[in-house]
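Sample entry was shown:
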Amino acid sequence: MPVGNAHGDLERIKQLLDQEPGLINASWDWGNGDWETALGATAHMGRKDIASFLLSKGARIDLFATAMLGKIDIVIAMLTDNPNLKHSLGPHGIPLINHAEAGGDDSLTVVEYLRQ
């Protein structure tokens, strides 16, 4: 399952996408509406390497991945358009700020912005 593997297994993700490129934006519902994509899985795990690979293959970026990757301009634009997204929850009910924190030093500006 690509979503499960995206939590930490880059090589398996590469194999799966070689076999079936259409999986790039597949999502999985873990139950009770807790759904995530492979990119979403990378975002709360801080796996920038897997996220970058998925994006290079055409994965659809979302707010949680932009926060983890430290893409402050995109985060600001999205939150300016819809301020309530600041408190949105990602896969497994993980808050947006936790996704930014998972990005480490590269996303410190996003963390600081979300703490305002």
Observations:
- Residues 10-19 form the longest helix (10 residues).
